[in-house]
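dumping this here before i forget
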Amino acid sequence: MPSIATQRDLAVRMRDGTRLFANLDKPAADRPYPVIMSVTPYGKDKLPDRLANFFMRLSGVKFGKLNCSRLTGFESPDPAYWVRQGYAVVQADARGMHKSEGQAGVLRQLDAEDYYDLIEWAASQPWCTGRVGLMGVSYLAMSQWYVAALKPPHLRAMVPWEGATDLYRELAFHGGIPETKFVPIWCKNRLQHGRNPKFPMAEDFLAETEAHPLDDAYWVSKRPILENIEVPALVCANWSDHGLHTRGSIEAFERISSQQKWLFTHGRKKWETFYGEEAQAWQKRFLDHFLKDIDNGMDRVPKVRFEIRKAFYQQEARSEERWPLSSVQPMVLYLSTITGSLQEEPVVSEGKLQYESTSRNGRAVFACRFERPVELVGSMRLKLWVSTSEGDDLDLFVVLRKLDPNGTEIFFSGFNGYERDGLAKGWLRASHRGLDQSRSTPLRPWHTHTRIEKLRSGDIVPVEIEIWPSATLFEAGSTLQLTIQGHDAARYPSFGHGKLVNRGWHIIFAGGPHDSCLAVPVNKFAGR
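structure:
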């Protein structure tokens, strides 16, 4: 292993005079190297942040096996690995966090400009070849969308490994329902605890979230312009991260303008996968090609690594040329409240099914047994005709599950390593049911979240629920089960929705004029 030359607390002056501090790890040989960079709010010197990780594990977070050195910061590239591959690794504390000066905020235009300045500073150093690539997980992926849209001249590649792109829809509110567990913990334990005590915070993200329950100018200011991104990109999306990064990662891959872009999908634990051998091989091949000009065939690699799940940590990886898959077609399954089934033919007989909305056991369940193997790949669209016996609103939680031929549930990996999850989830507060039809598709409704449409008790209204992307194989004899309820599907570690509007009974209507149905993405050429 080559020796590592390390420099700590390099002061980098931003365009407004504020100093951000960065660490550099590089091979000891005195020559220039391409740079892999990340900017973190979690502390560049937390190597690792054992106390924080201990409390995360205590709360139920399961990291899996982390194949990285003790030099590795939280969700950051491993300097020991990348120095061995001939790269310099730079990590900086974000503005106002830990050692960096200034007032900290959450993914502002100012933070993107800081990142731009850091990239251009690194490219001008004698230890850099002038080529910079970005890498990191979660927040360290999210920040890449913003700076890449600004097009720094020396940015040559990006590896955003699971990063939300819409803080309203994917972090703070799910279907208009406020997330009340992860967001407060993250704000208090990560942001407020990690800020530079010499400077006040520029914003109280938790207070701003409560003050902006609709998708207004505040949330627009937090949204990157994905279409402005043109740099080569290796994007990772995780089927197991419903409630955080799954939706935004897929959205980004579809919308960025990069002509050279690849999608790596998986359905396992995020950190374990990021540092795993296969992922690192993809990352190295991609960065070697674009930062070192190595002709390693990356330009001929199929654009999508498509992982389809069978069960917990049972999956198959395939290669595809585009996403969404060209072979996927919508299939509509109609809800029958009389039989509790999902069926391909419209239901003629009208019926209704109700559940107690505030009970942990209250739910409506529908199922479809597949007589032949079926692959469901992508997002789904659930239409329901609903009513409430009390109050003027409903919070609807949807979970899809897979059952084996004996009716036993088959579990999948979920949020923060949860090991007994369903295969996909969706949420909607009924008063947020307004749609942007121009952005909706047969397999995904697009909610505007710009106005409130309350119900009157007893009103029957149509709502459409977005179910986040997934990829699952259903063997012959297995069952797709749809559950609708008034609360989270499980007690997830560090994630949940506590401020609900439910009262009384929720009633679901189906059949006749009430065309409640589930549109699912069937891969027509599975197993070809």
